Amino acid sequence: MNDYVIETKQVTKSYGSFLALDHVNIHVKRGSIYGLVGDNGAGKSTLLKLLAGHIYPTEGEVQLFGKYEEKDLEHSRKKIGCMVEQPGFFPNMTVEQMLKYYCIQKGIPDRKKVDEIITLTGISEKRNNKCKKLSLGQKQRLALAIAMIGEPQLLVLDEPINGLDPSGIVEFRNLLHSLNEEKNITILLSSHILSELQQIATVYGFLSKGILIEEISAQALHEKCSDCIEITLSDVEKYSVLLEKNYSKETYKVLPENNIRIYRPKAQAEAYSKLAYENGIYITGMRTIQSSLENYYMELKKRGTEK
User: What 8-state DSSP symbol labels residue 67?
Assistant: First the structure.
């Protein structure tokens, strides 16, 4: 038995001739914070709407908590809190009234739950404020509070920090960390703000033009995004043999146009230069690269769309 709370198998969604999702296989483990990375129009919202049950796949299978039959999926979705589309706010209702309304809708009339959720999501001070008076950040917190009704085991959040100011982003990030660590809630969130995802996600899925290019753990991604030295050589094949012999523990990759890239180098740049010089290999270029998540994604997109 696997421990995926979300798994899709060859999920495809088309709108006429437009392919929004193309045979997507996604795997979200229990307890993880899964960052879904993609440009606007990559298919992120479409995928999240499928998981929330707002739309249905053209082909393929969606599994939630190991269940895939439609009747079982309905039951499984009761364990999910969603911020996929902005919930309807009645402008003249207060925050507290709004939460009571959604509690009744979900069959949870217990007043204590409203108090608990208001405290948990940090909007206690605004409980008597009308929705139309809330800032964007406060509306995001209210939307999260609505998603938290029913004590979900999984949160599905579409661009939850979009439009927030820097302090609002930090507060929202800390809140999600708290829900994940203290409440053991699995979180799937999409964002195009990659620098922010890098501070919260434990695993990533990279989506481009409806295709899931890669899934990778945060640890593996960190290793790939660490400092590296790129060297342009007159004889890259000979140099790679020398590298294997003299620096056997190095991780490197031979690239086109006589380049070799050494990841997380264990020696100073001068040592690699000296190795080439002593063996009659000319170096025509050398640079240190600090790869960001944005750079990694851009390179991944190029490779993925060329397949």
Answer: B
